[in-house]
Amino acid sequence: MISAMKRILVGIKRVVDFNVRIRVKADNSGVITEGVKQGINPFDEIALEEALRLREQGLAEEVVAVSIGPPDAQNQLRTALAMGADRALLVNHAGVIEPLDAARILLKVAEREQPFLVLLGKQAIDDDNNQTGQMLAGLWNRPQATFASTLEIREGIARVTREVDAGLEVLEIDLPAVVTADLRLNEPRFVKLPDIIKARKKPLDTLDPAALGAAPRPRLTAVHYAPPPARQKGQRVKDVAELVASLAAKGLV
Amino acid sequence: MNRILVIAEHDGRRLAEATARAVACAQAIGGEITVAVLGAEVAEPARAAASLAGVAHVLTFAAPANAHALAAVQAPQLAAVAVSFSHVLAPSTTFGKDLLPRLAALLDVPALSDVMAVETATRFRRPIYAGNAIVTIEAGELRPILATVRLASFEAVATGAAAAAIEAVAVPPELPAHTRFISVTSQDSGRPDLATARRVVSGGRALGSAEKFQLVHELAAVLGAAVGASRAAVDAGYAPNDLQVGQTGKIIAPQLYVALGISGAIQHMTGIKDARAIVAINKDPDAPIFEAADYGLVADLFEAVPQLIAELRSRGR
C-alpha cells in the first residue's frame, strides 16, 4: 500500500484523434481505427490539466495518470507524463472496454493508490458513453460531480460548478470524490520538447486487470455498425427574399 | 412481459417534456410502464406523469433529501425498486446522464447511453463518434436493461390519458449526506426551452461579441424560437453554457434550425442532424455548414439578419 500522500488519480483514454472523420468498416463490424491518428481523449486532457494546476497550487502532492488500453496507450501516458503527471499506470486491455469494466478497474486502482480526488473526462469521444465517472463513484460509494466547469478544493471538501441543462449548478462534496471534466474547466497546456525527454524517465508501470481482481466481463454485444443516414443535399439561395420565399413555401415560417 | 421504469425529470412544479419522450421510448420497447418521481414536492409532476399516454403506474419518492436531483442520493432509492423491472430508462439530459450510470453501478449492470432507436426489447441503436457512426447493441439476457433516451429521436407521448395509479414509496431515512446542493443559476431568456423547441436560432463566433449576439435573440423573438449557440460562441462568452448545441451540449431536433455565423464543426452538426430544415447564413462560402444546410445563404449576417427580420415582420410575424 502506498503512503497517504495527497494524490490525484487521472484517467487517460487513448481515442481516435478528435479531428479525424471516422469511417465504418465495409463489413459493418466496427469503425476503422487502424492507421488512424490517436490521441488523449480531449476531456481527459482537461482533467489532467486541472490535476496539475491543483498540484501547482500546493493542493496536491502527486498526480498519477492511469489508462486502460493496449500497449500503444503508453504513448498517451508518456504525453500525460510530459504534460506533468508524476507517474503513470497502464492497465492492459485490448479492444473495446465497457464503462462498468473501466469503473471496476479504476476502483481497484483507487483502492491501491488512495487518492483524495479522481479526475476523469466527462465522456470519451469514441463511444460517447459519459458513464465511467458516475459508475466509479457509485461502486466506490463516494460523491460525484459530473460536467465540472470550476473546481475548488478546501480542507476535505470540493466545491464544483457543474454545467447542467438548466445553467450552472454548484455542489459541495466531501473528499475523496470523483469529478468529471467538462470543456470549460480549463485550457490544457502544450507539451514542450524538454518535457517529452524528461517524461521518458518517469515511472510507467503496467498492471493486469485480472491480477487487480477486475478482469473485464463485457455484457453488451455490438452487432452492427453503420454510417449515419445522410442528409439530402440542400440548395443555395441568392438573397434574403429567396430564403424567406423558400421557407414560406415549405410552411417553415 | 416487460416492466419498464422511466425516471421522471421535473423541477418540483412541472414535469419536463423530456419525461414524455422517454416514455415514448418505453412504448417502443413495449410493456407495462411505470414512472418514478423523486422530489421534495412530487404532487404536480406525479399528476402530470400519471396522465401521460401509456403510463400504468406512478411511484413517488417524496423526501426533503430529494429536493435537488443528486445522483448519489437518488440512485440508492431507485436501486431498491429497479430490480423488479426489465428496463429502466431516463432522459439523456444532464439529469439522466448523471444519475443512470450511478444506478447501473449499484445494480452491477452496464448501461446504454443515448438510445436513438428500439429494434427489439433487447436491441437498440445509439450514436458513437459524435454521431458519425451508429452502433446496434444487443443486451441479450441482461436484466434490467438501463438506458438513457436521446430526446431528439422520440416524439413526446400525448398527455391527458386516463390517470394512472399513484403510489408513494417509503424513502429510507439514511441517505448519503456527502453531496450537498448549493445553488443553481440559470438565465431565463423567456424563450422556449432549447431542448424541445420547434424552432431554434443559433449564433456562432462570427457574432463577435455578447452585445452583437443580441441579433440572434432578435431573430428568435420574431420566429418564436429558442436561442442556441455554438461551442465557440459559448467559449467566447457571447452566450451561457446551457445554450450550447452539439456533441457535448444539447442534441436537438427542431422543425427549423437557423445557424448564424456558425462554421459547422462536426461536433456542432452532431447536435442538429435531426432538424427537419437547416438554414445557414455565413459569409464564408466554404463553411462546412453549407454541406448540411437545406437553405444556404452566403452573406454577411449583420446585413442579412436585419433584412430577414424585416421581411418576416412584413409577413406578419
SSE diagram, text form:
The complex is a heterodimer of chains A (253) and B (317).
Chain A: E1 7-11, E2 14-16, E3 38-40, H1 42-56, E4 62-69, H2 73-83, E5 87-92, H3 99-113, E6 117-121, H4 132-140, E7 144-154, E8 157-164, E9 167-174, E10 177-181, H5 193-199, E11 204-207, H6 209-212, E12 221-226, E13 235-236, H7 240-249
Parallel strand pairs in A: 1-4, 1-6, 4-5, 5-11, 6-10, 7-10
Antiparallel strand pairs in A: 2-3, 7-8, 8-9
Helix pairs in contact in A: 2-5, 3-4
Chain B: E1 3-7, H1 17-29, E2 32-39, H2 43-50, E3 55-62, H3 71-82, E4 87-91, H4 94-107, E5 111-115, E6 117-120, E7 123-128, E8 133-138, E9 145-149, E10 165-168, E11 179-185, E12 199-203, H5 214-223, E13 226-229, H6 231-235, E14 256-260, H7 266-269, E15 277-282, H8 289-292, E16 295-298, H9 301-314
Parallel strand pairs in B: 1-2, 1-4, 2-3, 3-10, 4-9, 5-9, 12-13, 12-14, 14-15, 15-16
Antiparallel strand pairs in B: 6-7, 7-8
In short:
The complex is a heterodimer of chains A (253) and B (317). With 253 residues, chain A is an alpha/beta fold.
Structural commentary:
The complex is a heterodimer of chains A (about 250) and B (about 325). By secondary structure, chain A is an alpha/beta fold. Chain A has one domain (about 5-250): HUPs (Rossmann fold, 3-Layer(aba) Sandwich), CATH 3.40.50.620. Chain A has 7 helices and 13 strands. In chain A, strand 7 and strand 8 (about 155-165) form a beta hairpin. The mean pLDDT of chain A is about 95. Chain B is of the alpha/beta class. Chain B is about 25% helix and about 25% strand. Chain B contains 9 helices and 16 strands. Classes of the chains: A alpha/beta (about 250), B alpha/beta (about 325). At the A-B interface, helix 3, helix 4, strand 7, strand 8 and strand 9 of A face helix 3, helix 4, strand 5, strand 7 and strand 8 of B. Strand 12 (about 220-225) of chain A pairs antiparallel with strand 8 (about 135-140) of chain B.
